[in-house]
UniProtKB/TrEMBL annotation:
GO molecular function: MHC class II protein binding; protein tyrosine kinase binding
Keywords per UniProt: Membrane, Transmembrane, Transmembrane helix
Gene Ontology CC terms, in alphabetical order: external side of plasma membrane; membrane raft
Annotated protein name in UniProt: Ig-like domain-containing protein
SUPFAM superfamilies in UniProt: Immunoglobulin (SSF48726)
InterPro entries, per the entry: Ig-like_dom, Ig-like_dom_sf, Ig-like_fold, Ig_sub
Annotated Ig-like domain residues: 154-244, 247-320
Amino acid sequence: CKCSPLYPFIPTILWSKANKGTVWRKERNGLQYWGYSWFQRVRCPNSRFEKGDFSLQINNVREGDGGVVVKVVTSVINYCKVTPWPHGATVRWTLNNSPFVPQAGIAANRGTTENVVREKATARLTGNWTCVVDYKGKEGRASAALAVKGVIHPSKDDTKVYAAVGSAVTLPCVFSPSLIPSNPVWEKLKPGFLFKPAPGRLPTSFSSSFSQHPSDQSASLKEVGLEDEGRYRCSGSIAGQRLTRNMQLVVAKSNSIPSKDTGSATLTCQLTDTSEVTDYEWVHVVYDLNGTRSVGSLQKGKSVSISRVSKENQGEWACRFYGRDGILGNITYHIQLMSGLSGQTSLGVSHNTAAMVGLSFLLLVLLLILAQMYKNHRRRKRIFQYPALETIVHTVSNEREERERKQVKN
């Protein structure tokens, strides 16, 4: 891997084996990384870097080392040439008529015929580049159009996608409109593999190739669960080169923690990754009888304490979480669920009260019946104490009735 020694600095060097991941990489700061099974077997001699020689040296060659080795070019290099170079001239760059703010830095070979901009190839570099040369109060300009093709959305690796538990989410993977990838593949990467991520099992609700545009290879999850969080990789082949884009799905959920006082609870917003979150806020959302939505109170913080039985707190409570560039996502908690539980408790108490009243009434009836039975028993007992008197009374009564009948006949 040789090129003209045009750089005043050592560039980032990346060697990989086709479809096998990174072989060796060296950053501009001097840090080196080896791929799995390549550790200390490969290197690029530092003494040749200044000559533009970045060739890879493999020691202890193995049978498994066979295959296609790819030199990955990940940079865009713009040159500004002025012939002859005016001594004391300065150069500045504009992109789409706006001053260009570099991420990797601008390398300027002052006093030579070239000024160089070296940047990692991303969609943000697409457009009209203008090299502006200032010399003794005069300007010279030269422009050129640049198109960066590949995966344009997301525009960079390890972009985070946020979704709430139970919701649907789209994992974007959009290629440039003129590119139609072949053999598109989606993978969920296992954690713990930094340089050579191993593919894992995709979620059950995962669905890909739902778009009618062949350049759009986005996928979706119909119902997100906590277990679906993690890193995903989309890839496709363009002219024999495998283009990939990694992204991370961050899952959010709300949690309710009841306090010792059963009438209140603490709502907490939880995310599987909070590295980009800078702020939280809870918003009370209320719907009237016509379905009109209105926003009520707003409270800052990851957690909020509310009264569960208060009518003012009924409705939806939405947790919004923000990053450096604005809102990242939100998740909603329905307070009616907790109010319903309180209503069930009250209803249960009402049922118990009615049952107690019914039992008391039944007991009272039973007592009255027992009292009447006891009175009858006592009366019969008093009569049975004088059996002879009862016989005399009946005999006298019968004789009287007999005499009265005879008198009637006569």
